[in-house]
Design a protein that fits this description.
Number of domains: 1
CATH architecture: Roll
CATH class: Alpha Beta
Shape: globular
Order of helices and strands: HHHEEEE
Helix content: 10-25%
Length: about 160
């Protein structure tokens, strides 16, 4: 987004998407039955979709950048902070993440595009919608991913 002066305008990140330091007694996950619909919107059960990358033999092994992005969205919905940190590239990963704000409702995910730049670099554009305190929020981002040692990692994102 241009700021009219040859630079890029920075958009403020809605509070619903900001992460703070994790309180020591914070719960790390939100329970959801494995046969529940996956939060990523695939219409598959969580256990047959993103859940298989959150834990178990396929943990952290999303086969594509888009699959990793969808599983990360589901991890945000479920407050799987462990998964979010483990799939964040070490060069840009924060030390900690805080759980979702109380009352935050995730409303859906739309993937706009997935582009493979080369076998180990990809871009995913998406819109994530949520509601907090009666206000709707919309996060539009173009995220960059890298594959190292056969595993995809989130590197960074630019808000739209």
């Amino acid at each position: 987004m241009s700021n009219g002066r040859g630079g890029t305008a920075q958009r403020e990140i809605p509070q619903a998407y900001q992460r703070r330091a994790v309180p020591e007694n914070a719960a790390m996950t939100t329970p959801l039955a494995p046969d529940s619909a996956c939060p990523c919107g695939s219409a598959h059960p969580l256990s047959a979709c993103c859940g298989r990358y959150h834990a178990g033999p396929l943990a952290g092994q999303a086969p594509t950048a888009e699959t990793l992005m969808r599983s990360r969205y589901s991890a945000f919905v479920l407050d799987r902070l462990d998964y979010l940190l483990s799939t964040w590239h070490p060069s840009t990963r924060p030390a900690t993440l805080a759980p979702n704000e109380p009352g935050l409702r995730w409303l859906g995910l739309t993937v706009r595009h997935h582009r493979l730049h080369d076998p180990d670099h990809a871009e995913v554009s998406f819109v994530a919608r949520s509601k907090l305190g009666g206000r709707a929020h919309r996060l539009e981002e173009v995220s960059q991913f890298v594959r190292e040692d056969g595993r995809w990692h989130y590197v960074t994102g630019v808000l739209r």
